[in-house]
């Protein structure tokens, strides 16, 4: 019995534990550092939470406030992360906002410095050029993928991708938030959008416009994955547009037929309407009423004719799209012009019959 007990007491951790306990019995300073009494722990934690709540959350601080911040190195790393070769001076200008220029002017006035900062130092001109590039290449890319879609639909998808929410989110994900020189931190969504567009212009100036177009396609078009692009275009008269499209293609006028119905005498009624042309089903859809079902069926027929239905091929990456050979000025047919053309032809035909 004695040998195992001696081996246990001779272990290093047991000896150290006994030494600490023996020392803590005679040293009150060491004992007060630990909350050994379980009854005193909940009040202590409660007091910590109350103090934290009273002070409020920690304000968001720029990474430079923590030290070890090299702005030039961050600019260089930004370009390498994106796989782009930027001109450093142009990229630096792309991250300077108008509020930062105004703050610098105010600080110089307080100090007594009379030198003026040129207006070209901020990214306003670059953001305007970047916006034009984004719209031009987005529309060209969408026309390449949807050659049968009307120009109004192309513009509606482009407007969705150009919203402040989308551009600010993309700019934040590629890391422009910490590099923006602004009056306040974090920068506003408008400053994020202007900076992202300025970065696109910086890519075009540092390399080529085609490279900037590939940059736009790779970062903005993936935002359409999982979205119904047809719902972005609000159609007021889908049946009238469908009739005009079929007439322009030499097909018979659309005919709507009730395929089946259920629960007509209840609040859960359902009607399934199909659209036919030359006895061929070109679209069908359910609805709560016959009017709603017919309207939705006309939209489905237009989707099938424009080849923008859910079974369409996936979006192509910039490497598979010939951006250099795309006609950036060419536009798809306009739905409004088509409606006006065939509405005038219908009225003239009615007058001729009379």
UniProtKB/TrEMBL annotation:
Residue span(s) of domain Large ribosomal subunit protein mL44 endonuclease: 70-202
Main location: mitochondrion
Entry keyword Ribosomal protein: yes
Record-level GO cellular component terms: microprocessor complex; mitochondrial large ribosomal subunit
GO BP terms, alphabetized: mitochondrial translational elongation; RNA processing
Subcellular location: Mitochondrion
CDD domains, alphabetized: DSRM_MRPL44
GO molecular function, one term: ribonuclease III activity
InterPro entries registered for this protein in UniProt: Ribosomal_mL44_DSRM_metazoa, RM44_endonuclase, RNase_III_sf
Coiled coil: none
Sequence ranges assigned to domain Large ribosomal subunit protein mL44 dsRNA binding in this UniProt record: 233-332
Keywords assigned: Mitochondrion, Ribonucleoprotein, Ribosomal protein, RNA-binding, Transit peptide
Family listed: Belongs to the ribonuclease III family. Mitochondrion-specific ribosomal protein mL44 subfamily.
This protein's name: Large ribosomal subunit protein mL44
UniProt organism field: Magallana gigas (Pacific oyster)
